Amino acid sequence: MRGVTTHKRRxxxxxxxxxxxxxxxxxGWVLADDSLEELEQxxxxxxxxxxxxxxxxxxxxxxxxxxxxxxxxPGPTTGLIVSEDGFIVSSAFxxxxxxxxxxVTLPDGARARARLIAADRSRQLVLLKVDGAKRLPVSAPxxxxxxxxxxxxxxxxxxxxxARPNVSIGIVSALGRIWGKAVQTDAKxxxxxxxxxxxxxxxxxxxxxxxxxxxxxxxxxGVDWYDSGIGFAVPLEHVLSVLPRLRAGExxxxxxxxxxxxxxxxxxxxxxxxxxxxxxxAYKAGLQAGDRIVEIDGTSIERxxxxxxxxxxxxxxxxxxxTIARGEERFDREIELIAKLEPYAHPFLGVLPxxxxxxxxxxxxxxxxxxxxxxxxxxxAGIKAGDVLVGLAGKDVTDLASVRLLLQQVxxxxxxxxxxxxxxxxLELKVEPVAVSDAVPDDLPPxxxxxxxxxxxxxxxxxxxxxxxxxxxxASVFVPGNYDPAVAYGLLVxxxxxxxxAAAEAQFERWQAQAEALDLIVLVPRPGQPxxxxxxxxxxxxxxxxxxxxxxxxxRARIAVGGAGTGGSVAFVVASAQRPLVRGVIALxxxxxxxxxxxxxxxxxxxxxxxxxxxxxxxxIEAGAERLRAARFPVxxxxxxxxxxxxxDEHAHLERWLDSLDxx
Amino acid sequence: xxxxxxxxxxxxxxxxARCRVGVVVACAVALxxxxxxxxxxAAADWHATIAGAQQKSxxxxxxxGFRGLEAYQSGILISAEGHVLTLWSYVLDTEDVSVTLxxxxxxxxxxxxxxxxxxxxxxxxxxxxxxxxxxxxxxxxSIGQRVLALSNVFGIATGEEAVSVQHGHVAAATSLAAHRxxxxxxxxxxxxxxxAMTNNPGSAGGALVALDGRLIGLLGKELRxxxxxxxxxxxxxxxxxxxxxxxxLAGRFKPSxxxxxxxxxxxSWSLEALGVVLVPDLVPRTPPFIDTLRRGSPxxxxxxxxxxxxxxxxxxxxxxxxxxxxxLSQIDQGDExxxxxxxxxxxxxxxxxxxxxxSQGGQP
Lengths: 664, 364
Fold this sequence. Notes:
The complex is a heterodimer. By secondary structure, chain A is α+β, with helices and mostly antiparallel strands. Chain A is built from 13 helices and 36 strands. In chain A, the strands form eight sheets. Chain A has an eight-stranded mixed beta sheet, with helices on both faces. A six-stranded antiparallel β-barrel of chain A has the order 1-4-5-8-7-6. Chain A has a six-stranded antiparallel beta barrel with strand order 9-10-11-14-13-12. In chain A, β6 and β7 form a beta hairpin. The longest helix of chain A is centred in the N-terminal third of the chain and has 24 residues, at 4-27. The radius of gyration of chain A is 29 Å and the shape is globular. Chain B is an alpha+beta fold. Chain B has two domains: 10-249, Thrombin, subunit H; 271-360, Pdz3 Domain. Chain B has helices at residues 10-15, 21-35, 46-55, 238-249, 271-274, 298-301, 321-328, and strands at 57-61, 72-77, 83-87, 97-100, 106-115, 120-124, 146-151, 164-175, 190-194, 207-210, 215-219, 223-225, 230-232, 234-237, 276-278, 290-293, 309-313, 316-317, 337-343, 346-352, 359-360. Chain B has a six-stranded antiparallel barrel with strand order 1-2-3-6-5-4. In chain B, strands 7-8-9-14-11-10 form a six-stranded antiparallel β-barrel. The radius of gyration of chain B is 25 Å and the shape is elongated. The termini of chain B are far apart.
């Protein structure tokens, strides 16, 4: 280690460096590069020396090997001392594996056991405490107002060597990232320095390094960006502001309001509510679908991104004052955010709509009933196949989209009025919706009248290969030969278990044989690498789906992803990643994988889970199904006769499930 | 062959608080050399540094080109008459190895020597008056120091094109040997870890240089850090390989066998020898809690108790029951065995010695 004199000399040099830089900047002097180079080097070293005593190495013992999809190495992690009596902040990533024991190496080399006191789940931090510590070195925070983009940013960890910190040097790339929660840097951030400080050239702590992702949450989100030149730190100033709550053992959760915004570009759309979750804080405050949020705590909101930037940094328990515009009316509501919403179940009438293309004239207003589920709310109310739904909850029903929108306002167990046209008469009925059902009809009438063969330009039909620029993946697509642009088609994404999966090819042919009868387009994407599915393939699958949605007329209510074995597990991951698109998951002999999908009012999702008796992973499959049911997803469970594949009857059952995805 | 003067890493010598007398003398020699202007390129002009270092870097082509293995890597000139230092790899495992200079001249290279354990190799091409790195003038680097990495990463440079230059900092100085089981590398010596993405296909054997142009080390191969599940970017310091290179140049080098078994200890400790039974090892990272102790066993005599959690063996963390078994197998029963265990929330250290009564200490 360096002697005291060296240390002092370096610090003096740091001041000198700063001074010289200022002088050079103000008067246009040109300094000899030689000295500037060396002074800069000395200043950076001094900054590391200054923060180093408060940077501790943390070892963990025991725990899991994986966190979600990410393998976690057993190596040491880093923490920053934030109080003289032994409170230490670190990244939640190092503790996501739930270690049995946590050991901190203090600045004097002594090892001490640490306890996990609290976590900040919004910013992926943990607070540890070493008992009996006294007068530990604490580093000063860099005031956020002083942090400038382009300034030196030094990432400090203590993982390779306990005696010396490891460093990575870059600049501040941006402020207010991840909806205002983090500072961005191009220093190389990885498990080697997660939990350690990002410091400025004066050795003041800008923030705590954590993996983060603008699009995902969770301890391991953003880890795949390690060492990429995109890294994040939660400002220490913010951490210190919530430290008293963390010290008291309070775990901080992201605050939830309980609304869905209307779909479309969040960069241009207003913060208009598409749905309000029953029993959520927004619901209790009287917010409704169609309301527009125009102000939060006095900050005016014009676009959804502004709304998110204001809302997402907040914690559960925080109060927000919203100004809401409803028609001409404007009013304020003070709302306390909560940590977790009650699981949402979609209200279900028990109706399948017909899918006849709308006739040229507007006579066909309303939704014609194709099928009524036995014992359903609609059956009990006397709705019959052939009826035309024209009103719901006092509002007119014009098309399917309007039914779905109106249903989001309806609550399970509360009677709603339904108006149906039967022949010449219009009936007013009362329906009491239940939670969406996992039943599969035994027999389904056709979804539409046959149509004369389409004549004219149409996109590619039959089986063809789909390739997308910038993706190594290949995919096959099958479009029924009688494709008719007026008809809305279902989209099934069938995932093989590996690059060479003969069973999946056979299954693809089986779907092709049924595609015409089901009005179905089938997409079979293949892994980009021979080793099998990887995170990078998700993007390709998403793009391929978007391509088909753009080129063909796709029924948004009938987009499903499925597969057998690994393909089935990957289907869950795809469904989570493509939540706004996917309405169904088919998993044959496959337990769920990845993160549990969110159950959203505007994005219903149904699951078809089937496995053969005595399958080795039957327990995992059943447990997965139970978890999905607890989150109030409709899960159709089937036991298969053989592990090799579906019998004709079993396949027909699955086809009927797929054919009834547009139920409501 | 060349005669090598005393090797003096100047920067390291100056930064040490306490220099031994002999080293002080060596420092003085180095300073004289410096003031003579022979060694030090002005730090200011790193464009000149880069141009100079690129001239001393070569592109090497050899075996490979199948199953995703690249048939190219990098190397550095270390003599005017065409000695090329590079990393030992499958690329050199052919009669037909070529070296391309930055002026585009292509030579067939002869393998003078290779040390599979250090993972370095020395090639010779038939040329003269080449610009080259002086190993004797190599620099040591400090943590946070700005450095340049030159290599033919991803084989981008072809023909007379110069190798690619990357800029970064020394992130850490550590030793691969200090992290047993973490790196799959036969080289176990000291390394500089870098904060730039220097170690990619083709970069092995490239140069790590200081801004003043002095050589710091040789870029390593692609290596994964399993402790953190990340790719590692590292270079071997010149000091770690310089002696072997000198022997190779002198034609005196005899390679040791590369496939020595990883320090098999004949009479090693084991859980059985200690008299310890751990809790059942059911999950991948079962914490090593002691379940029971054999009566009269060394562990019991040392004062260990059931429910103690074993944390360190000879100061090395054992994060799982599996790691504990592996660690014990590396320690001879004739050597001292220090165990740090956690009992409730207290850390307790015990020492077991053969032929001596086990002693029990307090907290470390």
